Each structure stands twice: as structure tokens, then as C-alpha cells.
Amino acid sequence: MSIVMAAVEQGLIYGLMALGVYISFRILSFPDLSVDGTFPLGAAVGATLIVAGWNPYAALGVAFAAGAVGGAFTGVLATKFRIQGLLAGVLTMIMLYSLNLRIMGRPNLPLLGRPSVFRLAAQWGGIPMAWANFAVAASLALGAILLLHLLFRTEIGLALRATGDNPGMVRAYGTSPEGMVILGLALANGLVALSGALAAQHGGFADVGLGVGTIVAGLASVIVGEILLRPRSILWALGAVLAGSCLYRGAILVALRYGSAVGFTASDLRLLTALVVLGALVAPAWRLRQEGAG
Amino acid sequence: MKLAVVALLMVCVVSAVGQPIVIGITQIVDHPALNAVRDGVIAVLSEAGYVEGENVRYILANAQGDFSVAIAIAQNFQDQRVGLVIAIATPTSQAAVQVFQGTAVPVVFAAVTDPVGAGLTLYPNVTGASDLIDVAGDLALLQTLIPGLRRVGIVYNPGEVNSAILTKMAQEVAAGMGLTIVTAPAEHSAAVLPAAQSLVGRVDAIYATTDNTVATALEAVVQVATAARIPFLMADPTSLERGALVCTGFDYWDHGRLAGEIVVRLLEGAVPEEIPVAYQKGTQVWLNLDIAQAMGFAFPQAVLDQATGIFVGGRRFVAGE
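^ Those are the sequences you sent over. The predicted structure of the assembly is below.
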């Protein structure tokens, strides 16, 4: 498998999570840290159900619902109990750590050899696993942005978008911005949990440690996508998030692949990942300036 | 059989063309024990004639604690067409197996406490070494050290799969030994100190297994245990200098060597299917006499006699020296 294909495959799987981060941070302007808990929550719920014999697609659905409950909880803390958004997210995140351990009954649940949405697709379509991985990740991620695009055109969707920009306007139209924050966070964390469940099926295990670095990767994807594609419509903005996620995963793969050739060691991975992302951000601007000068 | 042919072909092709065999080594974090495993593997391989840069090339990768990177590493190994994968610790092994299942590339895992529970024993191209420690033996040693021992406190991270398994094992065997286990969970290194403090006055001894979180913040447990005069046993020999009263278990460099021996057998034509999972043997017992003196604790002569070595006057001595 080429680096590009691996980057896109992983970028789309984790892109669902980045879409959730986009909804909370950009659309709702809510700094939601619960994602570090809802991502492994999705993995835990999804993996537990698969081990219990559930269909992997149904497991994804329940994982989405579980993440939505987690997000709504953060929303209720922030709006009904007036807890600062950052703290509300942190509280949900740390509660979920213990809850995830309870759900799985252990810190790590292997899915090796169990059915997954990827394997089902490979069997159903008679295609190799590499293609099935790609096809499933692509259809779920593109399906998600299409559904979100349609949602954001409805009355509720417009209210959601207004919540982050101008809560007063939302109130003026007779809708409660608090309710919109709860709904938006539920949707965002549902997507994050869906991504976690999918990542567990893709990676072959669920682990309570799976949440480490989720918010960082999510934010990086959102911002990289925005800078590179400068989207003007909501559909483009959602697409840019997926593109940013693919680029972020690509940066990790490039760092892994070529890092040692330029004298970096295994322990420099994070530094190198950041440098690759930085390079991708700076290069277009630099080239423009060169052309301008010439 | 098919695998055997493929594996044999692979080795033949490699030696015939004179191209070095590429070995990918993936580990989940930079950690002294896990690094020692990696170094032990490489040491055995070079002793067996597989020298870096000559007939073998290593791709070292470290997920730096990010599980999603563990998958990326395995995919990168596949992309770079490695001939063999060495996966250190449970999640990296699961990620490697997920990517390499159904291929002819052998995956050798190491530092996995419960390979069966981790789902690693289901594949013909996967084998490896388990670092399961002798929990019952450690509890029995504590009984010998402390007459009338009733309650043993275990500091552990419930989020670490290895630690959770060993703590559960301790709880299972304790009942039959007339012991009660009191657990003190610490979900990250900063939580180790309060966890150890919570045990003071409630236990006769403190025990820590191969828990990475406790290992990181070992000094916190040592400080609490020494001040409260509670004997502390850590199942890791490298913790001796850091102030544990008793250290058991094995050297992770030796564990790396155990995994390395499997790798050498595979490189010489064996198939993973024929190599059963190797369980680490040779538990050591190290006694810290400096800490014992500070605590006013006296080791029974029988334990001193059977110890692998002692730590006294700031130095480690192997028995017989």
C-alpha cells in the first residue's frame, strides 16, 4: 500500500473525529475536551458489542449514540449548571476514563479475528482487505459530510450554526442556544465516538489509552484543512477537515518512512510530524512570495 | 506448509541476492524496560551473525504513546516490505498482527503479559515471548519476609492491561494464601504518590507488578513505604537502586534475548507456527540492605541465602561476590 493510500484511509477514519472537533470548536465555538474521553468510549462500546456477537455496523451505531450521550452530558454541565466549557469537557473526559474501563471490564479488548465493517465489506464485495479498508473509510466519511451538509441547511442546522456566532439571534428566533449547544455537542461527540469505534475495528483492539492525543490531532486537522483550502461554504469546510486529517496522518507516515534517511531517530517522531505539517502549511505561501518576487 | 515454503523462499532469496533482511521493530513508548527488550533482541541477533548494515537492516519505530501511530507504524513496515516484525508491548503487537495477519511475514511479540487474552495466539505467522511474572511467588516471598502478613497493598494503573491482569491474578491467589489484597489505583504517574499514601495504616506490605506507571513514579512509593516502615516489593530488578526494599522478576534485557532467540530461529528457516510462545523464566530476588537499615527491617537468613544479590552501601553485589 502506498503512503498516499494509507494516509487517506487513516485520515478518513480519524477525519470523522476531526469533523466532531470542527462542530464543537468552529460551529459552536465551544472548546470541548470531552473528545479525549468519547473517542475511546466509542472504541470501548463498539468493541464490547462485537465481542458480544453484535453486527459491526450496529456496534458503530450504538457507539455513536454513546458518544452523543457523553457530548450531551458536557453540554448540560456547561449550560444548565453553568460550568465553564473547558472544565465541563475535562470532567466528562476523566469520568469516561473510568467508565470505559467498566464497559470493557479490562483496559484492553482485542478484536483480532473478530468481524469488522472492513472485513464484511471485503467478503461482500470480494475485494482485498486494503481496498475494503479504503472503501469503508471513504464511504463513511463522505456519507458523514453529506449528511452534515444536509443537516446544516435545515432550520435546526441553521440554528446550530448561529449558536456559535450569535447566540442572541438564536434566542430572537425563539430557539434556546443552550439546547443548541447540547444538541451540537451530542452530534460532535457522536461522530468522535463513531471514529473511535471505527479505529478500534481498523486497528484490531480497543484500549483505554486510545484517547491520548485525540484533541491535538483533531484540532491540527481542522486548522490545517482551513489554511490549505480556505473554504467558503460549509460543504467545502467539512471537506477541508477531512483533507486536513489526511494530511496530518500523511505527515506521520512521511515522518516514519523518511525520518531515518535524514538522520532522525524513532524518538523524534512527534517533532518530525510537526515539521512536516508546518512545511505543508508554509510551502504554498513561500512559493507565492517567490512567484511574486520573480 | 505453504507458509513454511514462503518463509524458506524468503530466507533463500535474501541470502542469495545478498540483500540485507529488513526487520521492523515497533514499540509503544520510550521506556527503560521496553528499550532494554529492543536492545536484548538486537544483541542476540548480532551474536548469531546478523549484523546491522551487513546482512540485516533495522527500522526502529516508536509510537510515543499514541495508539493511532502504532497502526501507522505497522502499515509503514508493510509498505517498506520488512521481512520480519518485532512488536514490543501489547497494543503495538495487536496493531502489527492486525496489519500482518494472513501474510507470510513473521511477527514476533515481546513484553506481552497475556498473549492469549490479547488475541495474539490465533495466527500462524505470529509467535513471541511473554513477560508474565510469578505473582504467587512474589506473595509467598512477602509471607516469608513478614511473619503474620495479612494485608498486601497493590499500587497499580487499572488502565494498563499488563498490570490489570497481574493484579487480578494476585487477588485470585491471595485468598488461598490467607491474604487480603488492598488495591490503590493510580491512573497516571502523578497519582502514584496519593495512591501509595492511601495504603498507609491499611496494609502490612506494598507490592507493585510490572506496572509502567508505578515504575515511572517509583520514588513516590519508596518515600511513602520507607517513612511508614512498610516493606515494598517491586517486580522489577532495575528498581533496586531506586529504593525498593525487595526486587523480583527478571531483567528486560534477558527478556529481549528470549524474543531474539525466536527471531534467530525464524531467520534460520523455522516457521512461526512451530514455535510456541516462550514464557520468561529465571526470577531473580534482590534485597536492598540500605533501605532495610533505614527502616529497621531485618531480612530472614533464609531469604538472604537464596537472594540473587544485595544492594548495600550504595552498590549492587551479586551473591557469592
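Chain A has a mean pLDDT of 92. Chain A touches chain B through 39 residues (CB under 8 Å).

Shout if you want it in another format.
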